[in-house]
Input
Amino acid sequence: MEQKDPKILIIGLGQIGYHNAEYMTRLGLNVEGFDLERSAIQRALNAEVIRREAKAFTGYDYYLICVSTHDPMNMAQPSFNSLLEIAERLEQEGEEGGLVSIESTVAKGISNQVHSILGHRLHVAHVPHRFYSEDKKEHGVRQLRVLGGCKYCCTLEALNFYAAILNIPVHTVKSVELAELSKIIENSHRFLEIAFAEELKMFCDNEGLDFEELQGAINSKWNIKILEARNGIGGHCLPKDTQMFFSLAKNILPFSTVAAAIQSDKLYQTFVSKREDFQVIFPNNYISQKKLATN
Output
C-alpha cells in the first residue's frame, strides 16, 4: 500500500543519485541524501534536490544505493567495496521492513550478498539505473526499468515503490540475478557494437576507403545501425560492465567475442592516439605505408 509521506534516502549523489533525487523531489516526495564527498552533498543542497543531508541511516522507508562500483584507481575495473560497506551500515542502522533498492550496476550475486548481510531485516531489490542526459524527457529517470527482488516479498515492495509511488514503468524478472545481468549485458552489447565500428574504421583506412560513406550505405537498410568510430571506448560504464560479463563468461567457451572486442578496442585506441605505434604493430599494411606517410 502506498505510504502517505514516505521518507527516502539516496545514498550516493553522483550522476545516478543526483538525478534520482531531482526526479523524486519534483514529485513532492521527502528526499534526503548521503554522500562521503562534501561537494556532492553541497551540490544537491544548492540545487534543492534533497531536503537535507542525512547523518544516519535510521528512520527511512526506502534506501536507494547509487554509489560508484568501479575501482577508484582504475575506472574500467569493478569494485563493490563501497556498496558492501553501506550494506554493513544498513544492517546496523536501517529501518526494519524498509526497502533497499540497488540502482548501482553490480555483478551477478552482489544483490544477494547485500541481502545476506541484512539478514532480511530489510527487503532488497535491484533496479539498475537507466539515464540518458541528452534526452531526459524520454530517457531520463522515468523510463522502463528492469526490476528483480531477492525474495518475492522484496519484488512486491520494489514494485510498489517504483510503479505506485514513483510512477516509473517496470519490467519485472523472476530473479534478482536476471536484473543484475540485464544491465551488464546491455552495456557489453553496446561495447561489441562500438568495437565493430572501430574495427571497420581501421579496415577502411587500411583499404583506402571512406568509412563514413560505407557506414551510410550500410545504414540505409532499415534494420542495421553501424555506430560511429570515435576515439575509443572511454568512461567507466561500458568497459567496467563489459569486464563484469567477461569475467562471468570467459571460462564457458574456448573463444569469446567479448575478449576479441576488448582487444580490438585497445588496438583502435592505439591507432587513433599514436599512429606511429600502430605502424610498429603492423609495419607492412596500407595504413603504415600510405596513410601514415601523409600525416
Remarks:
- The beta strands are 7-11, 30-34, 62-65, 70-71, 74-78, 99-102, 123-126, 145-149, 170-172.
- The radius of gyration is 22 Å.
